[in-house]
Amino acid sequence: MKQEKKLNDLLHVWQYIRKYKIQFFGSIILTVSMTILNVLEPFVLGLAITELGNNVADMIRDVPGAGINYLYLRNILIIYFIRAIAYQLSNLFSQRLMTKVVQMSMRDLRRDLDAKINRLPVSFFDSQSFGDVLSRVTNDVDSISNALQQSLLQVVNAILGITFAIIMLLFISWKLTIVAIIMIPAAYLISKKITQMSQPYFRQQAKYLGELNGFVQENLTGFSVIKLYGKEDDSVKEFQRINGSLQKSGFKAAFVSGLMTPFTALISNGAYILVAVLGILEVFAGTMTIGNVQAVAQYVWQINQPISTITQLSAIIQSAAAATQRIFGFLDEEELVEEKTSELPSLIKGDISFENVSFSYSEDQTLIKNFNVDVKSGDTVAIVGPTGAGKTTMINLLMRFYDVDSGAITLDGHDIRTFSRQDYRSQFGMVLQDAWLYQDTIQENIRFGNLGASDEDVISAAEAANVHHFIQTLGEGYQTVINQEASNVSLGQKQLLTIARTFIADPKVLILDEATSSVDTRLEALIQKAMAKIMKGRTSFVIAHRLSTIRDADLILVMDQGEIIEQGTHDDLMAQGGFYSNLYNSQFQEE
Question: Which stretches make up the ABC transporter domain (predicted)?
Answer without folding.
Answer: 352-586
